[in-house]
Description:
Layout: H1 6-15, E1 21-22, H2 28-38, H3 44-52, E2 56-58, E3 62-64, H4 81-89
Antiparallel strand pairs: 1-2, 2-3
Amino acid sequence: MGRMTLDEILGQFARDGNYHFTNGPATAVELRELEGAVGRPLPDSFRAFLNRLGGGLFYAGHEIFGPHRVMVHDISTYSDLPSFLEAVVLPPGPRADP
């Protein structure tokens, strides 16, 4: 089998929906707000993933942050992608307004 395209990967995730716990697809407005909160555009593939599937827990508990919190346990360090990026990834400094 050759390398899968992004659309094939997203299709497989969608078909395996019973193995995921998500808050549903992100809207275009939510994605723009998320990009404003993190101060930069999302990569096209990540934007497509969130638009089609949303954030949440996938397969064996692999967490993918999205624009909204998905609470599936009582210990939560980061509630959403902007919180995670601010604390762990992005250097201190001004952020773009949403």
